[in-house]
C-alpha cells in the first residue's frame, strides 16, 4: 500500500470480479468524457493511441466500435489483437484502464444496430458504406479509480483535508477481473 492510502481513515481499496466488475466497467465507460484506444501493444513498436467512441457496451462488457476497414488501427489489430482502453470521466475521478482482445468483423446486421446518423462524417456513403467494419473488444482485466459518494462529496472532503492537513479522500480503486 502506498503512503497516501496508509494515512486515510477509510478503506479505499476494492477489487471487483465477475458481475460486479462488469457493472463497474459499464457504469464508468458509459459516463466517461473521453476514451483512448491503444493498439500495437505487443508488436515491439511504439503503441498507437487514438481517441474513439464506443458505439455500445453490451451486458457482457464487450465494447463495440465502428472503424474504417482500411484504417491503420485495423491493420494494427490484424497483427496484434491486444488492446488497451483508457477512459476519463472527470478531472478528479472516474478513471478506467482496461486490457482486452479485439476482433474485426463486417457483420451488416451489427452495423445496422450500431449505426448513428452522425457517423456519416467518417462513412460518407452512410450505413451501406463498404469501408465500415466493427471492432469488438472483450475486456479481460483492468483497474479503476473512482469516488464513493460522488464528485461533490469528494471535493468537500479534499477541501476539509487541505484545511486540516490530513488525508481525507473519498476515492475508491481496485482491480477489475472480468
In short:
Residues 21-169 form the General stress protein FMN-binding split barrel domain. The protein has 178 residues and is α+β, with helices and mostly antiparallel strands.
Report the CATH architecture. Answer: Roll
The helical percent reads 25-40%
Shape: elongated
Q: In CATH terms, what is the fold-level topology?
A: Pnp Oxidase, Chain A
Fourth CATH level, the homologous superfamily: Electron Transport, Fmn-binding Protein, Chain A
Pfam family, one: Pyrid_ox_like
Protein name: Pyridoxamine 5'-phosphate oxidase family protein
Domain General stress protein FMN-binding split barrel: 21-169
InterPro entries: Split_barrel_FMN-bd, Stress-Dev_Protein, YdaG_split_barrel_FMN-bd
Characterise this structure:
- 26% of the residues lie in helices and 34% in strands.
- The protein has 178 residues and is of the alpha+beta class.
- It has one domain (12-177): Electron Transport, Fmn-binding Protein, Chain A (Pnp Oxidase, Chain A), CATH 2.30.110.10.
- Strands 1, 2, 3, 4, 5, 6, 7, 8 and 9 form a nine-stranded mixed β-sheet that branches.
- It is elongated.
- It comes from Mucilaginibacter rubeus.
Amino acid at each position: 500500500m502506498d503512503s497516501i492510502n496508509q494515512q486515510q481513515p477509510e478503506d479505499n481499496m476494492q477489487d471487483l470480479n465477475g458481475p460486479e466488475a462488469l457493472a463497474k466497467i459499464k457504469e464508468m465507460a458509459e459516463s466517461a468524457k473521453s476514451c483512448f484506444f491503444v493498439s500495437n501493444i505487443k508488436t515491439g513498436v511504439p503503441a498507437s493511441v487514438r481517441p474513439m467512441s464506443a458505439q455500445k457496451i453490451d451486458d457482457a462488457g464487450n465494447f463495440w466500435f465502428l472503424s474504417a476497414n482500411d484504417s491503420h488501427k485495423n491493420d494494427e489489430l490484424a497483427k496484434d489483437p491486444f488492446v488497451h482502453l483508457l477512459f476519463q470521466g472527470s478531472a478528479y475521478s472516474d478513471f478506467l484502464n482496461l486490457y482486452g482482445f479485439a476482433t474485426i468483423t463486417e457483420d451488416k446486421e451489427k452495423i445496422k444496430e450500431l449505426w448513428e446518423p452522425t457517423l456519416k462524417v467518417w462513412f460518407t456513403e452512410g450505413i451501406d458504406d463498404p469501408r465500415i467494419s466493427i471492432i469488438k473488444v472483450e475486456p479481460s482485466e483492468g483497474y479503476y479509480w473512482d469516488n464513493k459518494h460522488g464528485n461533490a462529496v469528494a471535493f468537500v472532503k479534499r477541501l476539509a483535508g487541505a484545511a486540516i492537513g490530513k488525508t481525507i479522500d473519498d476515492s475508491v480503486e481496485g482491480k477489475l477481473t472480468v
